[in-house]
Amino acid sequence: MKQAIINAKVYVNRGEFAEAVLVENGLIAKVGTSEEILALAGDAETIDAEGKTLLPGFNDSHMHLLQFGETLYQANIEGVTSIEDMIDRCKKFIVEHPERCVNGIHAIGWNQDFFVGDQRIPDRHDIDKISTEIPIVLERVCGHILVTNTKCIELMGLTADSPQFPDGEFKIVDGYPNGQFFANACNFAKKTIPDFTMEERKEIIQTAMEFAVEHGLTSMQSNDVGTTIMDIPGAFQMFHEIYDGGMAKLRYRHQVCFNDMKDFQYYLTEGEYVNGNYPEDGWLTLGPLKLFKDGSLGARTAFMRKPYPGTEDNYGLEWIKHEDMMEYCKLAAKYNMQVVTHAIGDAAVEKTMDCYQEAFIDGKNKLRHALVHCQITDEGLQDRIVDQDILVMAQPIFLGYDMKVVDKVCGEELASTSYAFGTLIRKGAHLSYGTDCPVESCNPFWNIYQAVTRKDMDGYPEGGFRPQECVDVETAIDAYTVESAYAEFMEDKKGRIKEGMYADMILLDTDIFTCDPMEIKDILPIMTMVGGKIVYKK
Question: What is the domain-level CATH number for residue 445?
């Protein structure tokens, strides 16, 4: 099967463009002028790009595909402006979709910092106004805090005397749980709502994939197994069925969480990591161990070196203790396995690197261990990241919200050296882009827009937030393509439009290199190709 894409503006490398691409058997066979490609095309299908820009497909280096898909089937509480707004939306959802609410409601997306007026975290008394008959679990946008109604607490059997959950807590007010759950305790509250069936989830994943390819993603590195789905063998089987059955739209690399060290050991020695079927050049690949070192900045659970301003002893949350993390990292090194760790606060970044360094092979980061998020840093941490060659999986799209709180939450001095994604790249770090979707949209053009402009979606602030951290368009595209490929040891197979690479490409409706940077967020593909297969066409 051959395709010839001609009359395009083909991004090859910084400052280097071509005109046409020949695709053969899912690979890029030749890049050159339209005349050159047509001379080689033979009976190939010819696609006239009419001068439009052709990029390598985007690769989200960290997201949660299934959780994103589930949000499309749940009450929409993203962007609620008050507790009352959230209550009203959930009550309306019950009326409009009673069949989805028989066993309870689970949704994600609220953020108290966006509430107009009273910016408190909701509690069970608020959520009881939605219903007292079914359990209700509403997660903050970060996924590290949730609130429930009283029915949920009753189903969990919790009282003021109940022991706290490991690596998490539920708050007690007036002698009874008040419905607020933090960190790992959230996972126990969510168990009160029956999961989607695996068949439902297969449909949900395909719906989410359709959104992804419509917005220019051709690869994703996604943490679903061991988080959104706790049935680890069932989850692996479900993804095999989707990909073996030809139902997938794009490439997928697992980032996997495990329940405990015993589970991790089993999967390395007897489970998926030795017995799983992952053919070379397949669209489904098995990736790194995923750990959580801390919570989120907005929830004040990011693990910090100094207490949060206005507090004496709140350093945030150290989700996994140093000794446990060290054990995971050493076992991963024994089996040549990459580790990627959620680390937002400066203490989380530092402690995670301590564990990585102790588990290095021959003193080097040969397994490409990565910091996911890596938001709060000082110059010393930045230099250490570069010196030790620690990868960073960053989310510039977080700036839309975080720029409004980081000075207050961290103090201006520390905030001034945080979200330093431009600085890290200029210093030589391997830094890739992701979205942590559904924390933010997986639309890569929104992410690139915020990386380039350092402005929110409304264009605030004029001149950009700490504009010294802005990057140019080529840098942002490379972070989303070749650097994301590097993060999964695939830089020799994808991330560029060059001979021998996978034919993963997107044709844009607007030239991202010449348009007003404010227009980048509105760009969309008119065609998405994965492995030479057109998976989306406008």
Answer: 3.20.20.140
337 belongs to a structural domain = yes
Q: At 243, list the tokens.
A: 């990909």
Alpha helices in 215-247 (DSSP H): 232-244
Burial class (CB in 10 A: 0-12, 13-18, 19+), 175: exposed
In the block, residue with structure tokens 């230099």: 383
Phi, psi of 384 (to 5 degrees): -65, -40
Q: Of 174, 190, 206, which one is at a domain's C-terminal end?
A: 190
Q: pLDDT digits over 293-347, tens only? A: 999 998 889 999 999 988 889 999 999 999 999 999 999 999 999 999 999 999 9
Contact 449/521 with Cβ under 8 angstroms?
yes
Residue-wise burial string across 458-467, b where 16 or more C-beta atoms lie within 10 A, e elsewhere: eeeeeebbbe
What confidence tens digit (pLDDT) does each residue in 22-58 have?
A: 999 999 999 999 999 999 999 999 999 999 999 999 9
pLDDT recorded at residue 411: 92
Tokens of 419: 């979200």
354 Cβ neighbours under 8 A, 6+ residues apart: 322
Residues 178 and 209 in one domain: no
**What does the angle CA 462 – CA 463 – CA 464 come to, to the nearest 5 degrees?**
95
Q: Measured between alpha carbons, how far is 57 from 536 in angstroms, rounded to an integer?
A: 12
- What's the CATH code of the domain at 120? 3.10.310.70
Percent of the chain having pLDDT more than 70? Answer: 100
Distance, in Å, from the CA atom of 462 to the CA atom of 453, rounded to the nearest integer, reads 9
Report d(CA 13, CA 26) in Å as an integer: 21
Phi and psi torsions of 242, nearest 5°: -65, -50
Neighbours of 244 (CB within 10 A): 13
| Cα distance between residue 192 and residue 153, in whole Å | 9
| Predicted pLDDT of residue 102 | 92
Structural domain count, the chain? 3
pLDDT at 374: 98
Q: What is the pTM of this model?
A: 0.91
- Residues 233, 144, single domain; the answer is no
